[in-house]
Amino acid sequence: MTQENVKIPFNIPTVIGNELSFISDAIAKRKISGDGEYTKKCCRLMEKRYGVEKILLTTSCSTALDISAILTEINAGDEVILPSYTFTSTANSFKLRDANLRFIDIREDTLNIDENKIEDAINNKTKAIVLVHYAGVSCEIKKIQEIAKKYNIFIIEDAAQCVESKYNGTQLGTIGDIGCFSFHETKNLTCGEGGAILINNSQFIERAEILWEKGTNRTKFYKGEVDKYTWVDVGSSFLPSEILAAFLYPQLENVEIITNKRIGCWNYYFDNLGKLEAEGFLRRPVIPPNCKHNGHLFYIILENQSIRDNLIDYLKSEDIMAVFHYIPLHLSQMGKKMGYNAGDLPITEKVASSLLRLPLYYEITEAEQKKVIDKIYKFFSRNH
Fold first, then answer.
1. CATH superfamily of 255-383
2. What was the pLDDT predicted at 2?
3. How many angstroms separate the most distant Cα atoms in the chain?
């Protein structure tokens, strides 16, 4: 089979090579429910690497955000500021607490929440700002921190796409009061479904452990601080099984190898699509000088939705799967129920209708990337 006929998927989950042996070891130890040896090893490795006092594995980034909403005591009538250009989990965790959601438009360059529009949305009901660092590229955190301090509100980082991404040299997810990672199969590091909550504000650590342990003080029991554990707070089954933790651990051990490979793939797209940007056919990602991304995803922004959709169809006809990203939350059925309308967030709406994500995963080859790039050039040579 020639390369011309090879099908190129949008994503293949990362496998570094040692996952099965670690899973076998976990099974041999007869401890496959949550909070076993591999869960602890994953948490300790991340705590040490990222300088966080307490990190807890979760079943997803969504449940990490759920914990965040409980810890910050988001309740009915409280307001939460967040971008509309994000996945539903960013909003769901706070809507489940009956919060009012204040969607803010994004910046045209990084596609992150526009820090210059946050302060105007704050009122005496505002409880938290939820940041989404799109594509592993940081929001302008310094200014947002100044705003949060001025109004005494929490910063929660939805850092689902951000393992190994940095802002001024600091790992994303470790800067706000709470950070949340994802280890979904589409992320750089994966265990299929999984996540982590990073507790950067020490006032939340004890309660986070209780919530994580289904509302019990079992962690204190294990530490010998109480002679028996019992139900002391709300909580849920937030911790993943040891099987998932064992799958994740070797990837955490090899995080630099995985990240460097993905950045190399990202750079290959960036360098080879520069001519099309110079000719005005598309726009490549923008990385501010104080941000270090992790090669999580590569997107291009086209002139309009018609061109974007035609390019998707053309690539599909060539056995290449490329996809658009979020439908803005304010334009969803839920968003309309909240009173939002088309035109409310013009940059978000423009980006959502014209952005295209290209295949990028750990095992993608240079030949496969070259095919993607060649077909994009062919599309524009035919249509323009």
1. Aspartate Aminotransferase, domain 1 (3.90.1150.10)
2. 44
3. 75
